[in-house]
Every structure is written in C-alpha cells, then in structure tokens.
Amino acid sequence: MRVxxxxxxxxxxxxxxxxxxxxxxxxxxxDYVVAVMSGNFVQRGEPAVIDKFARTEIALxxxxxxxxxxxxxxxxxxxxxFALGAIGILxxxxxxxxxxxxxxSSRADMLEKIADITVxxxxxxxEKIRKxxxxxxxFPNARKVALKNLVxxxxxxxxxxxxxxxxxxxDILGLEYIRALKFYNSKIKFSCIQRVGxxxxxxxFKGKFSSASAIRKRLEVSxxxxxxxxxxESRKIIQREFDEGRGPVFYEDMSLLILGIMRSxxxxxxxxxxxxxxxxxxxxxxxxxxxxxxxxxxxxxxAKRFTFTKLRRLTLYPIFKISDxxxxxxxxxxxxxxxxxxxxxxxxxxxxxxxxxxxxxxxxTPSLYEKVLSKALSSKEKPDFLKAELYVEQFKRDIMAxxxxxxxxxxxxxxxxxxxxxxxxxxxx
Amino acid sequence: MRVxxxxxxxxxxxxxxxxxxxxxxxxxxxDYVVAVMSGNFVQRGEPAVIDKFARTEIALxxxxxxxxxxxxxxxxxxxxxFALGAIGILxxxxxxxxxxxxxxSSRADMLEKIADITVxxxxxxxEKIRKxxxxxxxFPNARKVALKNLVxxxxxxxxxxxxxxxxxxxDILGLEYIRALKFYNSKIKFSCIQRVGxxxxxxxFKGKFSSASAIRKRLEVSxxxxxxxxxxESRKIIQREFDEGRGPVFYEDMSLLILGIMRSxxxxxxxxxxxxxxxxxxxxxxxxxxxxxxxxxxxxxxAKRFTFTKLRRLTLYPIFKISDxxxxxxxxxxxxxxxxxxxxxxxxxxxxxxxxxxxxxxxxTPSLYEKVLSKALSSKEKPDFLKAELYVEQFKRDIMAxxxxxxxxxxxxxxxxxxxxxxxxxxxx
Lengths: 429, 429
Fold this sequence. Notes:
Two copies of one chain form a homodimer.
Chain A: E1 3-8, H1 15-28, E2 32-38, E3 41-42, E4 46-47, H2 52-61, E5 66-70, H3 72-75, H4 79-92, E6 98-103, H5 108-120, H6 122-134, H7 139-154, H8 169-183, E7 189-194, H9 212-220, H10 232-243, H11 255-263, H12 267-270, H13 280-290, H14 294-301, H15 308-320, H16 324-333, E8 338-344, H17 345-354, E9 362-363, H18 369-378, H19 388-406, H20 419-422, E10 426-428
Parallel strand pairs in A: 1-2, 1-6, 2-5, 6-7, 8-9, 8-10
Antiparallel strand pairs in A: 3-4, 5-8
Helix pairs in contact in A: 2-10, 4-8, 5-8, 6-7, 11-15, 13-14, 18-19
C-alpha cells in the first residue's frame, strides 16, 4: 500500500496546486492521498482567504482523500515549526509511505545534504546564525550565509553555490520537511516536484499561472474576476463562499482586534508571548500606539532583521496566547492529535485501515476531544509523546482560531462561534 | 468665593444640560464652575458618541470654566463608584463650595435621609440586598426593596413610599453623590434641580427636550437632523467632529474587539477581572462564543438580576484590565489626581488659585504625569490617600481608554494613538 502525504494551505487552491497533485500521483501511484492543511490561519501570519471547511471541500474534490488540520500552533510558526507539525502528523499516522513537496530547485538530493549538514553541525551553525543576526540579517538570510560558510570551511562534498537553492520559500520548506523527517527518524520517502508558473512570492497576476499571493492581492481590491483563472471546483466553492458572505477574509480585517489588544498591553505584557525578543516587545508596544492600522504597524516595526511574515505571525500570538512554553513543548513532543476535517469514500476506507495503527489520536468529532484523549491515555500503547495538557492546549487553540476567524466573516449571521463543534465533518461520498 | 461643582457626561450636550447649568448658576451664583466629566467611556459602559476633547470644548463654551476628567476606573463603575470618583475630585480640590445635581424628584432632603439610612444601617441593608438579589432582583431593585423594608420595620421618621423616589437614575446618582460626600466627610453643600423634559431613560425623540439616549439613538441610524435640536455650540462642534470622521462612535463599533478578546479567553480568565461573579464568568464565556454581535451577547447574558448597563460595563473590563484590586483600592483611597482637560480664562484664574491648596495632584500635561506624582509624593503635605501604584494604574487606564477609543474613529487618520499626549490642553481664552 502506498500512501501519499502532502502538506498544503490552498489559500486559495489554484492550477499550480492541481498540477502538484497530479504530478505527485504520477510519481507515487498512491492508493490514498492524505493532506495536512493549515486551518483558518496560515503560515504567513494571516487568516486564510476562505475558511478551512471550504478549503477542505475543494481539496476533496480535487484528488485528496483525507484532509487533516495542521494545528494552529504549527500553522503560524516559522518554516521549522510548520514542518515539525505537518511531518509529525503524517509520520504518526504510520501509514504514509511517500511525501512529495513542491520545490523551485527540484533538487531533493541537495536539500537532503544540506539538511544533514544542519543536523550534524548544529552547534557550529547556530553560532554562525547568531552572529549573522547580530549583524542585522533576518533568520533565513543569516542561515543561508552561515550554511555557505560552513560548507566552504569544512570542505564538505558540496559546492557552496548549491546553498543558493535555499533562496526560495518552497525549497526552504522542503529543507525543513527533510529536517523534520530526520527529527522523527521517519522512514517516509520524500521527493520533490518542480513548481511551474509563478514563484510563491510573485505577486503579479499571470492568469492560470498566478501565485496564491497574486490571486489574493486581486481579491483584496475586490477583483473577483481572478476566480475565472482557478480550477472549476475551486472557483465554484469560493464563489459560493463569497456569495454567502463568508469571505474573502483578509489580515486587515483584524486591525481593530490586533491594535486594540496591543494598546491594552503594557510593554512587559508582550514578553508573556513567544517571540517578543530582541527589542520587539518595545517596538510593538510603542508602534501599536502610533500606527493607525496594522499595515502601518508592521511598516513601523519592520527592520532588516525581521521579515514581514515573521512580524505578522507575531501579531497573532497575543490573540491566541502563544507562550514560550507552548511552542517549546509543541516542538519537543510534536503534534498531539490528528483532527480530520473531511474525507472522500476512499478516505473513509483509509481512516478505517489506520484507526488502530495510528500512534496519534484521531479526532473526527471535535466536541469529543476530551474522550479521545482519555481513551488514548488509557491505551496500553499510549505513545510517549502524548501529554494531556499539551493535547488540550493545542486543541483549544484550533477552536479559538475558528471562533476568532468567524468574527471576520462579512455576513454577521456566520459570526456565531463554535463552528468546529457545530459543523459536520465534510464527507464527499 | 463660591465654586460650583457639577458632574457630567455630556453625551452629547443638549438643552437639558444647558438648563441645568443656568439654573445651578442662579441657585449658587458661583465665581467659578468646575465640571468633572467622564472621559471617552461613560457610565452606561459605552464609548461616548464624540470624544472627551470635543465634549470639553462644548462644556467650556456653555458656561463651564474648568473641565476635569473623571478617571476611567470611576466612569465605568456603577453609580456608587462613579459618585465616589467624581465627588472625590471635587472634594479634594478643596475649593468647591456647592454641588448641584439634576434630579427627577428634586427632593434633596429625602435623598439625604435615605443616604443616612444606608450609612447608619449599612449591615442590615447589605443583608437585605443580598437576599433580594438571591431572589433574582437586580442590585438597584434589591436595594429599593431593602430600603423600603428597613424604613417600615425600623419605624424611622420616613414614609416607606418616599423610597419610590429612588426609582429614577438621576435620583439614584444623587443618592450616591450624597453618600460619597459623607464618605469624604465633605463640607460641600449640595442641592438639586428638577430635570425638565424627557427622562434620562426615555428614548423617544422629543425635539429640544429629548434625552441624550434619544439623541444617540437617532445618530445610530444616521439621522443627523437631531443635531438641529441641540444648543448652537454643541451642534457646531459635533458637526465638525462628524465632518472630520471622529464620530459618532457607538458601542457596536467595538463588537470585534470585545467578542475577539472574550473568545480568546478561557472561562477561568474571566475571574481575573472585576464583577464576573454569580455565574457571569460562565455566561460570558459561553455566550461570547454563541453570539454573532455584542448586542446579541448582552441579550443572551441578560437575566432579571443584571441590568444591561451593568453587563455592558462588564464587557469593557477585560479590555481595560479592571481587576478586583484596582476597584477596591480605587474605592478605598479615591481618585489620585485631577487631570484638567480644558479651561476658560476664568478657569485659568481658578486653577492658579487652587494650585497650592489642592490636596489632589493636578495633571495639566499628561506626558508629565510621573513628574507630577514624584512632586506630590515628596511634598511635605503628601496626602494619606495618595498611593504611587494606584495613581499610575488609574492614569494608565485613562491613556489606554483614549488609545482604544481612537481606533473607533471613522477616519483612519485619527486612529493613531497617544492623543492624550499629543493634543494640547483645551484653552478657551
């Protein structure tokens, strides 16, 4: 049995995603396709443009058999944390045999070598990165420079120039996926598919080959004609969501909430949350008072050594009460559950097959999350990674994320909360 | 020298307020008129319809010589706390000789007798109130019933029927002002003026005799023609504020902030803030998830024993981090400073006269609040009530209130914070 695992956000689902799915299927010929997908908040530190339920529907109509939610605590972390969560779920289901990810370089071999270096020369690398950041480099840049120097100095069997391939965001993610596979001592095989069309970060609209960023940018100025350049199923469902007033949802819609919370915080309150270090507590404290919008806030706080994406993620941490403890525990013990958002007929078969094998408790009915935990804890084969408090804290944040996200719908009717508890699991059968 | 003290909200300033000012002046013939005015949030638990700076201007153009801000911690408390703050400031300035308040009954003598009963029979009364509330009565109703029974049982020289006069909100406030005067052992004389026109709570529009509620209700449905029924100075300034996009501001504008904060709170988090007792923590926790707006939230939480006003105030406490400690200390030691929002030429004279006599430190330049504190603390006549931490905590909340209020302006340009620090004191000279 071959099971393909993919890690996605589908924000929104476009032809590039469809291409990836098809090519990955060609490569692996899987019996089942399992996707781990960011929930209502994505790695760019933003709410997804349509909610996780609609994005699940699209995925299931496009070739995915089971959609599992990447817990919030991982979906709004940097590439390393994001990968640790996503790979953790795929690994702990125990049945996934292959992972295929998109890549600009399409050099899985090189990415693996680099991953090995980062693991085997961890201390040296950390030291070099720290120095680079002290000079004002952002973490991604500092790491690139550090890796290059490491390769150069240590006469490893790599040309320093190959490090250039981790310039691009998909390659960076790919590198982190490989590192995460090593973290879990996983036997899952991985390969990559060259991305076609626009770069992830290319915000120019290019028809069917536009990046998700470019599409969102159009939606942000209410140009809904871009939907015509999305695969049919994606377009139809997104259109329905918009018609019902459940989107598009944008980061800017959170302005009052983010600025309001920050303006009611004293400087020392910021340090209760993860990541407000290196003067970021002071910067956010002061600039949240000065800025007239969150866009302005980010511009004021921005410095060479922080990427916008990182800063945007930080603005969510006080809302979701993301503490150092929660990040540290989550990145030590990995994801604590697999919450199923939806499945096809084949997906149902797959879930039945893994039900007893999965190391990670599977949540199909969110309101029963405590029962699922009790059962897992009392099981003879209770896995070492499972920590009751961590499980609860991770899961509560997914519920919280949906409750906050609902407030951003244009149609007030849908702003009622607890959608996770009220909506049925999505079945395409 | 006679100095008239009044306690106001001017939300917004209407003919009833003008009438009160003129009648009070006839009664007292004051050399100076000092108003203690709620800042950006008022006793109904709402943002004021226009900001405190504009309302100060109107007051100064209408016969008030000095406007002092009632600290947030008092302006969003129940009638008792509100009175304790306002009377505390007037008393501690040391120069106020007379207080005149509006009243439905206009029976200052009766109000004083009732106040005496509440002070002299405090324990008995508390016990009766507690019982009434256990039966499901709201605090105001439970107190009324308790007072009636107390009068009946104890054969005091009062007819139980006179207690009926504390049915109305101005009489209730009046009663609390008198109780507060007794709390401070004040020598200030008080009297009351019968209210003309609509009742405070009458929401029907009655032209020049409309209540502030009725006017706000019209503004809420964008009927700005009501401004024609306001005194000239009030109308002009309010019109200017609206034209510049600084109002009208409504409670509903806070929906995302209030629901967002509550949805990110666990049930136990509510008890960190004042007043979430008697199951209100549970009710707010649960209903904040279910409601689609704050209006709906209040309807869901509402029960016979809680007034809407009380519930609305509660929704502000998590934003402004109003703790039991802060309420208790504030109501024990009283207001810690008098922050001057504006003055006329005469007001300037008055401030010069009291500068050395005032028991309470006077803040004219908000950015210098720490210096004002240091000076007061090192003074030979440092008053017993002055507590450094309390002073800072009270003042920070006034600044916070303005920073939150600014986010509610329609024109994004004015959403920049720290208006307290940036705007000059308002001088009508």
